[in-house]
Amino acid sequence: MIIAxxxxxxxxxxxxxxxxxGKDASKGVLIRNGESLERICKIDTVCFDKNGAxxxxxxxxxxxxxxxxxxxx
Length: 73
What we know:
The chain is mainly alpha-helical and 73 residues long. The protein has one domain. 37% of the residues lie in helices and 5% in strands. Strand 1 (64-65) and strand 2 (71-72) form a beta hairpin. It is elongated, with a radius of gyration of 19 Å. The mean pLDDT is 75.
């Protein structure tokens, strides 16, 4: 992105955040605010509550991650 003046910078950031949040919302991802959108790049793990919405058939435990980093199968 090339910005020619500080006024354009002041307008482009909020517009970029609105477009980003809008595109995510159209795909079913709801983002609360711009700060959340900026921090999302640091996420390396997503955990889901077992409510049945993400499973197909009979749920099983695939992996266990212990606090000290040792993995068990």
